[in-house]
C-alpha cells in the first residue's frame, strides 16, 4: 500500500494537474475564458456535499428542465457526456459497421474519431473557398450514407449557412438518413440567424440537434450535452441512455445556469464583441479571417506558416496550414495581434487566394 506521504503527494499532483481557470494564452480548445458564473459555482459547491449519493438512475429531471427551456417535449430530449456523448449514442443506435457518414472537411476533430469508434466509413466533402459547406456535394454524398453531419456554426471556420440553405439541404436528404445538426456554438449566433429547431425537427424527423453546456455556459469540465429530435427517433436514443450516466452536479449546474441567464448573456456579449474586435484588427493588418459566428476566429493558410507566427500561443493548427484561435480576453487578443505584427512577412491570407 502507498505510504501516507505518497498518498498526499498524489493528491497534490492531482490538484496541480487541474487546468488554470483563467489562462489568457489557452486558445486552442474554444473554451469559455471565464470561470463558472458565481451562482453556478455556489450551486456546484453545494451539490458536492451529496457526492456520496448516486444521481438519478436516468436523468429525467434534467431532461424535463432542458425540454422546457428549449420548447420541446421531454420525450424529445436525450443527454450525454457533452455533445460528443450524444453523438456516440446516435451512432450506436442507428448505424452498423461499414455505414457511411458524410462530413465536411475540415471539421470538428471528434467526428473522424467517432466514425472510427463506430467503424463507419467517413466521406469527406471539402468546404468551399469561403469556409462554407458545399451542400450540393454533401447532398450527393448523402444518397448512400446513413449519417450526415452539419455544424452550424461550423468548426473550425465559424461560418454560418443561411436558414433557407439549411432547410433546402434537408429536403434533399433521404428520409432514412440521420442528420446531426451540431449547434455547439449556437449561443454566440445573433438571434435573427438562429434556426427554429423545434420546428425543424417537426418537419424533418430524421434530424437530431446537438447542443452543449461546454462553450457559452462555460462548463466544459462537467461534460453536459444534449440532443433533441422527433419523438420517434429520440425514443430509440433514450433506450440507450446510460444509467447513472450524468453526475450529481449536472442538473444543479444546468438549473443555476438557466437562472443566471442575464449574467450569461453579458458574458456572451463580451466574447462576441472581442471576437469582432479581433477580426477588425486583423483585417487592418491585411489578415483575412472567415466570417465567424462562434467564439473563435479562423485564419486560412497564409504565405508563411501560421505555426511560425504563433509560436508562444496555444492555438489549433490544421494540416492545410489554417489556424483556429479561441477568443479570450483583451490580453489574449493583444498577444495574437502582437504575434502577427512581429511576423510582418507573413500575414496576407485568404481562402482561395491572397488578399
TrEMBL record:
Cofactor(s) of this protein: pyridoxal 5'-phosphate
PROSITE patterns: AA_TRANSFER_CLASS_2
Keywords of the record: Aminotransferase, Pyridoxal phosphate, Transferase
Domain Aminotransferase class I/classII large, first and last residues per copy: 25-305
GO molecular function terms noted in the UniProt entry: pyridoxal phosphate binding; transaminase activity
Family note: Belongs to the class-II pyridoxal-phosphate-dependent aminotransferase family.
The protein's name in its UniProt record: Aminotransferase
